[in-house]
Amino acid sequence: NMITGTSQADCAVLIVAAGTGEFEAGISKNGQTREHALLAFTLGVKQLIVGVNKMDSTEPPYSEARLEEIKKEVSSYIKKIGYNPAAVAFVPIYGWNGDNMLEVSEKMPWFKGWAVERKEGKADGKCLIEALDAILPPSRPTDKALRLPLQDVYKIGGIGTVPVGRVETGLLKPGMVVVFAPANITTEVKSVEMHHEALTEAVPGDNVGFNVKNVSVKELRRGFVAGDTKNNPPKGAA
């Protein structure tokens, strides 16, 4: 699930625990902090935010020195992976209490805010929500032909076969006749849903489930790519 979800994300928020021993465990050779940062980069998530959580459990609580220590250590590691630390916001937070999540915390008066530099320009702010708002939206190629790699295929009672995946390029609409490569199965899309809501069209970046006619679950599998039969459908390489 970590990999499935991450492969579709535009930005990752890496949560690092600031507590004594907790951070060290995460950043150790087989720790989750390292593993998740590496997975995110490997799966093509090029934007990163680091939330330094549980700032209440540092020694002393809400320690600026601890934040700087973690920032230095994590920056060094993510740089090795391929991220540019200058473009990564480090935000000290205490999630349980909401400190520096949506509003500035009074517990960390020393924190003057985060700032990032990237070729598209600079950004700065105080809270985690502002770091999320500063993410650069990737281009959504709606003008290209439909490509939708399947992530899974479900059989839903009363509905039928429902492939799911993220639209990478083009548009997916109900009524469209799609072809699944490489099996070359052609069928009509009955409906398209995202988060249990029907869509009139799905655009790149949308994670959708779509109901198809007269195709059994056994015929489709993860990795197949759906395209529009009328507009440059996916085909084998020559």
TrEMBL record:
<dbReference type="GO" id="GO:0005737">
    <property type="term" value="C:cytoplasm"/>
</dbReference>
<dbReference type="InterPro" id="IPR027417">
    <property type="entry name" value="P-loop_NTPase"/>
</dbReference>
<feature type="domain" description="Tr-type G">
    <location>
        <begin position="1"/>
        <end position="142"/>
    </location>
</feature>
<keyword id="KW-0963">Cytoplasm</keyword>
<keyword id="KW-0342">GTP-binding</keyword>
<dbReference type="InterPro" id="IPR009000">
    <property type="entry name" value="Transl_B-barrel_sf"/>
</dbReference>
<dbReference type="GO" id="GO:0003924">
    <property type="term" value="F:GTPase activity"/>
</dbReference>
<keyword id="KW-0597">Phosphoprotein</keyword>
<dbReference type="GO" id="GO:0005525">
    <property type="term" value="F:GTP binding"/>
</dbReference>
<keyword id="KW-0547">Nucleotide-binding</keyword>
<keyword id="KW-0251">Elongation factor</keyword>
<dbReference type="InterPro" id="IPR000795">
    <property type="entry name" value="T_Tr_GTP-bd_dom"/>
</dbReference>
<dbReference type="Pfam" id="PF00009">
    <property type="entry name" value="GTP_EFTU"/>
</dbReference>
<dbReference type="Pfam" id="PF03144">
    <property type="entry name" value="GTP_EFTU_D2"/>
</dbReference>
<dbReference type="GO" id="GO:0003746">
    <property type="term" value="F:translation elongation factor activity"/>
</dbReference>
<protein>
    <submittedName>
        <fullName>Elongation factor 1 alpha</fullName>
    </submittedName>
</protein>
<dbReference type="InterPro" id="IPR004161">
    <property type="entry name" value="EFTu-like_2"/>
</dbReference>
<keyword id="KW-0648">Protein biosynthesis</keyword>
<dbReference type="InterPro" id="IPR050100">
    <property type="entry name" value="TRAFAC_GTPase_members"/>
</dbReference>
